[in-house]
Amino acid sequence: MEGIKELTPEKLKEITKNGKVVLLFSATWCPDCRFLDPFLPQIEKDNPDAKFYKIDRDGSIDVAKELNIFGIPSFVVYQDGKEIGRLVNKDRKTKEEVENFLNSLK
């Protein structure tokens, strides 16, 4: 999973234009975000058709506002430049919730 400290609108357009892209909006201070860390590698492995990015919400606040991401951890998925799904709220996510969300987009 590639980390992005500061996501600009231009960078967002660039990284989401081709293929399936999963954006995880997170922050270092967020305990519910850290809860995801142990199982993210397996989720990434189970979805080889997607490129995963972990976005620092605090360093990317303008894009987060533009995408209406006010709670973290949150996932937004793109396919060839178009948003195809989102799991956006402030609740802690389980491995099963994230897997079910991603599977619903296949």
UniProtKB/TrEMBL annotation:
Residues 1-106 form the Thioredoxin domain. Coiled coil: none annotated. InterPro entries: Thioredoxin-like_sf, Thioredoxin_domain, Thioredoxin_H-type-like. Pfam families: Thioredoxin. It comes from the Bacteria. This is Thioredoxin. It comes from Lactobacillus johnsonii N6.2.
